[in-house]
Specification:
The chain is an all-alpha fold. It has 23 helices and no strands. The termini are far apart.
Length: 465
């Protein structure tokens, strides 16, 4: 068999056009699951691979390799599913919602959401866990206060992703730094120069928005109705927050994420049995099947009837199919060809930063999973950074910004599907309010072209590009 060749730009455009047509037609026009479109896309790429001279067995191995690279995400997502189910059953999430309605003033609600989700995400190292617990609670509080839910979702995601990027416990943070060959703490320090200003700017924006939407015309009767529904169906009290405190403390002590989250889920089931009057087998069942209740208040039912391993299956399948698709693209060298096409233009830190952000974003669009973007981007871009003597910390930071902060913007990625499903707001609805992500991307580009906080390997101090 002759040696396989790389695809041409024309072949790449055709294959990616078919992929996008499949995804959009299935989701927008045919109302078919995105997972089916991704599965069919495997075989579209396999046909191209065979045309390029690859053996089917090698293409199949690339699918398996791609999936194996992201199995940690699968384990974390399953754990988070168990946590959501038992924490709702155990009264943890309902108690957070109740106290939020009781004590958070509407005018500072969006700022409080940003801060609470940031702290939660820094402590736990998981934006998914933050959105599935504190995020659900803040969405319910926002609904009660009459806030636009896409705006609330934007505040939740801004906080969740901010904290996730600054937590050494985060799997995406570890992945970005390790594949860029940077110490994880050095990576976090490099992220601080970008994330902190982005957080401050986002905090100002959400504060202004809070005063615009959180005036004195709040429907207090609606707030009392939601609080009453929670009190009627759950035992509300400070003691209900112990499982959350347990998880936060252990994760802050850098204990392994998955066993801590599962232990927190078990504690939630115990709380459901002891304080909420559920039989323990039924409480434990919520870890697998999720929680279900009829309070008579449609929004409360919608926000609380979720969780469990079964509730994560759709997102899990997106991750599996997306990682497999990304493995095929890597095998064929699709992104490698795209990068090499523009290689001669990458002669400055600014152009290289923009190219890195685009490659990482394409990793999400084409690979359908954040892990594809975080794995492929350093591989594709590391030679360009080394050629310009750019410090690998700049590579890891740009990979994180382009790969992680854009992952929730694409409706068919693992993050896009999970966040839209768990928060009850479509991706395109909350997208305009992901202010921290947009600000961070803008700052990364500004730093690249101005030379601010850009480090080089041929000197001890930062130099301007």
């Amino acid at each position: 068999m002759k040696e396989a060749r790389l695809p041409t730009i024309t072949e790449i455009i055709i294959i990616l056009g078919i992929f996008l047509a499949l995804v959009l037609s299935f989701t927008v026009y045919l109302d078919l699951p995105i997972q089916l479109a991704l599965f069919i896309s495997w075989f579209v790429v396999i046909i191209l691979g065979l045309r390029l001279g690859h053996a089917f067995q090698d293409l199949q191995k690339s699918i398996i390799s791609g999936i194996s690279n992201g199995l940690e995400a699968v384990l974390i997502l399953v754990s988070v599913g168990t946590l959501i189910g038992t924490w709702i059953a155990g009264g943890v999430v309902p108690t957070i919602i109740y106290y939020g309605l009781e004590f958070i003033h509407p005018s500072i609600f969006l700022l409080a959401t940003l801060i609470i989700c940031s702290v939660m995400s820094i402590a736990t190292g998981t934006s998914w866990g933050t959105a599935g617990t504190a995020g659900i609670a803040m969405m319910a509080i926002g609904e009660g206060l009459g806030m636009p839910l896409p705006l609330v979702a934007g505040a939740v995601l801004s906080g969740a992703y901010f904290g996730d990027k600054l937590s050494p416990l985060s799997d995406s943070t570890v992945l970005s730094s390790s594949l860029s060959k940077v110490d994880v703490l050095e990576h976090v320090r490099a992220m601080l120069f970008l994330s902190v200003p982005a957080f401050v700017i986002s905090a100002i924006l959400f504060t202004v928005a809070g005063f615009l939407y959180g005036g004195d015309d709040i429907d207090q009767a609606r707030v009392e109705s939601l609080k009453g529904a929670l009190q009627d169906n759950f035992d509300i009290g400070i003691i209900m927050l112990i499982p959350a405190l347990f998880v936060l403390v252990l994760l802050a002590l850098k204990k392994p994420s998955m066993p801590v989250i599962v232990a927190g889920a078990l504690l939630g089931a115990i709380w459901a049995s002891v304080f909420q009057g559920m039989d323990f087998p039924a409480a434990l069942q919520t870890a697998y099947s999720g929680f279900s209740i009829e309070t008579g208040v449609n929004f409360i039912d919608g926000i609380l009837n979720r969780g469990g391993v079964m509730g994560m299956l759709d997102t899990l399948m997106v991750i599996v199919f997306g990682l497999g698709f990304g493995g095929l693209l890597e095998k064929l060298g699709v992104l490698q060809v795209i990068v090499s096409t523009f290689e001669n233009k990458l002669v400055s830190a600014g152009n290289t930063t923009v190219a890195t952000l685009i490659v990482a974003f394409l990793g999400n669009v084409l690979g359908c999973a954040m892990y594809v973007a975080l794995i492929l981007t350093p591989k594709m871009m590391e030679k360009t950074y080394d050629r310009q003597h750019l410090d690998r910390r700049v590579l890891s930071r740009n990979t994180e910004v382009g790969g992680t902060l854009t992952s929730g913007m694409v409706p068919w990625t693992d993050n896009g599907i999970y966040m839209a499903g768990i928060l009850g707001v479509s991706t395109f609805s909350y997208l305009p309010f992901m202010w921290l992500s947009f600000v961070a991307i803008a700052l990364a580009i500004i730093y690249g072209y101005t030379g601010k906080f850009i480090w080089y390997t041929n000197g001890d101090s930062a130099q301007k590009s």
